[in-house]
From TrEMBL:
Domain Reelin: 23-192
Pfam families: Reeler
Record has Cell cycle as a keyword: no
UniProt name for this protein: Reelin domain-containing protein
PROSITE patterns documented for this protein: REELIN
Amino acid sequence: MLCNKNMYTCAVVLAFLLASVSIDRIDGAPDGAPLGACATMTPGHGVDPQLINSSPFKTEIPSGEYAIMDNTLNLELRSKNDVTTYKGFLVMAFDKNDATNTPIGTFKLPSDGKVIDCSGIVGSAATHKFNNEKKLTTVQWTPPKNFMGTAIFRTTYVHNVTTFWVKTESIAVTYVMELPTSSTQAPVATTPSSASQLSKTWISLITFSLMAYLMR
Ligand SMILES: *[C@@H]1O[C@H](CO)[C@@H](O)[C@H](O)[C@H]1NC(C)=O
């Protein structure tokens, strides 16, 4: 077998295979917001968005307006009346006190959708993968390491090609060291990050290739 004869070639081939798989996953999907829509969060449908206050959809954070530093949040992208459906969505997190409009943190595990890299930041947004009619999508978001500010989530919901709501806002979630005593919210459980596991895999692969190369 190739791998027994030449470890270096084997590692390189494997690395390329893995790289092409992850590129396909981002660019080759049949649907979802394109990276060009990241800045405005507006679909290129050529019609005006609906008034934001009339949105039949909302992005809920069941754990409430406080979260412990570094803890992952669960988001729910919902139909308010449980009847009206959305075909598409794009959600990003922002620092409420930063006007630069740069998304923060990383998304993972959308129940119906995929994670994309807006503003060149890995995993900074989640969008739909197929344009099936949805009433609820759950997704997890992890803040930047040691983030102690206030995060707000902006979501664009697409009901159909002519009817969509741009940048609907969630409640603000403030990251703290300890929950305020007046709060009855339980701390949110942290879940192991699959993203960090992925990068660990990459690091070991690269290290392995290097070692194999040096030890030829
Ligand atoms: C989009 O949805 C609106 C509201 O439900 C509806 O009035 C309109 O006819 C729909 N447009 C298309 C192109 O389906």
